[in-house]
Specification:
alpha/beta, 9-stranded mixed beta sheet, two-stranded antiparallel ribbon, 9 helices, 11 strands, binds S-adenosylmethionine
């Protein structure tokens, strides 16, 4: 997976990019994002799948400089003909996208509206990905999503620390087993179907094993890991000139970190005395 580790992907976790890229069934309908910012999600998707085209929806309220950065990013990655920007989806003709990522306004009413747009513009085998589903400041996101799920034929099958992946009920078996196979192949820690009971501070089992199903459909829940741990689990080398310090720290055993630091200090001292 191609991963650009600078501020382009400040809102995107490696696991979320990985599952969005690898769960996509088709590329012909293209993808759509509501809430684009600098384009981190869309640009990552298109760099990893050159067959894709995308529609980007964002009014950029009071964010002119961010919109400019987005347009410049499209130019610098040569994607200006592949990603079309619109301030809203009202003027779009009907589409059958293969994936729709919802990450725009985070109020309950806005997310409900976006989910209905997604439902009406998604291919039968398509995926809806909802961002900030567990965000402590935006409970309307999970509330709107669950309302939508219970009133439609959509159901979640996979959740990461930021996103929920949902599909039509008739596609659930397919997506659940495809996501399970990816989790196993890459040894990504998660729970499937059951939440394990855990002991309290006295060592007594305080919570018992329970089903995590929604509408009767068991859920794949990925354990929370930092961005850097996710990159390591996926064995991704970021395409940047400088390996971020935190990654280096996690890749090297502690004594080697000390040796590297010492050598760097000695070199710096030597250079300043020259
Ligand atoms: C968190 S950022 C999106 C990050 C982006 N998805 C990424 O992965 O880099 C939220 C974006 O939602 C946009 N936004 C705000 N209100 C919106 C609306 N009503 N419809 C669509 N987008 C909206 C903001 O302009 C901002 O760019």
């Amino acid at each position: 997976m191609i991963w650009h580790s600078d501020e382009l992907v400040e809102w995107l976790d490696p696991y979320d990019a990985f599952f969005s890229i690898n769960l996509l069934v088709d590329s012909r309908g293209g993808i759509c994002e509501v809430g684009v910012y600098k384009g981190g999600y869309l640009i990552t998707m298109l760099r990893n799948n050159p067959e894709l085209n995308a529609v980007a929806i964002d009014p950029y309220p009071g964010l002119n400089s961010i919109q400019e950065t987005f347009l410049n990013n499209l130019l610098s990655y040569g994607l200006e003909d592949k990603i079309k920007h619109f301030p809203d989806y009202n003027s779009l003709k009907a589409n059958l996208f293969d994936l729709i990522h919802i990450d725009g306004a985070h109020s309950e009413s806005a997310v409900i509206k976006d989910l209905h747009f997604a439902k009406d513009n998604l291919a039968n085998k398509g995926l809806i990905v909802i961002d900030d589903i567990w965000h402590p400041l935006f409970p309307g996101v999970v509330s709107a999503t669950m309302k939508f799920v219970h009133e439609s034929d959509f159901v979640p099958f996979l959740s990461t620390r930021q996103k929920m992946f949902i599909c039509r009920e008739n596609q659930y078996e397919y997506y659940y087993s495809k996501a399970s196979a990816l989790l196993q192949k890459f040894n990504i820690s998660h729970s499937s179907g059951w939440a394990k009971g855990s002991p309290n501070h006295q060592g007594v089992l305080a919570a018992f094993d329970q089903s995590n199903a929604i509408k009767g459909f068991p859920q794949l829940m990925i354990d929370r890991k930092s961005k850097y741990e996710q990159l390591i689990v996926l064995k991704i080398i970021a395409d940047t000139n400088r390996v971020p310090r935190k990654i280096l720290k996690q890749l090297l055993p502690p004594f080697l970190v000390l040796v590297v630091k010492k050598l760097a200090n000695q070199t710096r001292n030597l250079l300043t005395t020259l």
